[in-house]
Amino acid sequence: MSLALDAAAQDLLFREARTANTFTDEPVTEEQIQAVYDLVKYGPTAYNLTPLRAVLVRSPEARERLVTHMDEGNKAKTGAAPLAVILAADIEFHEETHRLLPFAPGIKDTVFSERPVREQAAQVNGALQAAYFIVGIRAAGLAAGPMTGFDFAGVQKEFLDDDHTPLMVVNIGKPGPDAWFPRLPRLAYDEVVTTV
Amino acid sequence: MSLALDAAAQDLLFREARTANTFTDEPVTEEQIQAVYDLVKYGPTAYNLTPLRAVLVRSPEARERLVTHMDEGNKAKTGAAPLAVILAADIEFHEETHRLLPFAPGIKDTVFSERPVREQAAQVNGALQAAYFIVGIRAAGLAAGPMTGFDFAGVQKEFLDDDHTPLMVVNIGKPGPDAWFPRLPRLAYDEVVTTV
């Protein structure tokens, strides 16, 4: 069964794309990240909430601060990657719904008036957008190294505020030598999909 | 700035892809969904947890039961779509980690021994995989209509169990007449991305 997407694109985005653990020193430019955003911003979210926010950790001083919060096994590669990005979800996304969902501005004061509801929606929809972002990094011909192995409270305190919750840190660049671990197994179709 | 992914693929997956609200009656086959899964199963998750599970609601009787749990505005299109899929997250994903992360089977009894930790990880990583799945549906040349407007507890009770939490329902098919609402605005790059 062939898909509409051509095989080279399938390989680029999924089949040959892998979580990179080493990178070359070729820089990742602002223009590349902007091109990624301008593509993946169209990925769907509930109510068009689009709560994802990103902090590009570029300066050596900021990178050093980020590395101190990473788990031991993630420190070296996060310090060495051409770019490290903190992906976070904005819990106060409802302040933008009058622009993002202009036909239903009232959701700010109804569906999303309570902070715990917003925290939940920010997490789930921020995660959807984080996945689109990873696909977009690969679409740019770059390798992504997403990580959740870090001190979430520490990164939030150091780089964000109480209204922005970290989702993951993603190292980005061209893959370097021995960039990949062996591909891990996946569940079979019949283990994941049932029909009623 | 051009991406490595060709422009036609960019359009197919993001720029011209839209959340469909009507569909033709062309069927969506098991082979198509299997091809989608076999592509997007490679999308990365934390610890390779891959907690996403899917229920294809095919029989008219099951579809009718699903429709009763959808919000008013989602009933007609969910009843009429060639295929409706319940995407859910398996909270007991740690039962598979010995296969999925063979070099660290111990995470089952350490990192993920507590159910609230698993609930959180299932939600976030299930959402990542739901996003890959939506991209995959588009890669198959199909339109997706993801929805969170339904009775989550009702759908869980009717189609799942206590260990599987619904993430969204996705209608799938070829877009029909007037399938799209106008494209909603997106936040500008500078509103989403900051640099330190």
From TrEMBL, chains A, B:
Residues 17-174 form the Nitroreductase domain. Keywords: Flavoprotein, FMN, NADP, Oxidoreductase. Its EC number is 1.1.1.298. InterPro entries: Nitroreductase, Nitroreductase-like, Nitroreductase_HadB/RutE, RutE-like. GO terms for molecular function: 3-hydroxypropionate dehydrogenase (NADP+) activity. The keyword rRNA-binding does not apply. Pfam families: Nitroreductase (PF00881). It comes from the Bacteria. NCBIfam families: PRK05365.1. This is Malonic semialdehyde reductase. The lineage of its organism: Bacteria, Bacillati, Actinomycetota, Actinomycetes, Kitasatosporales.
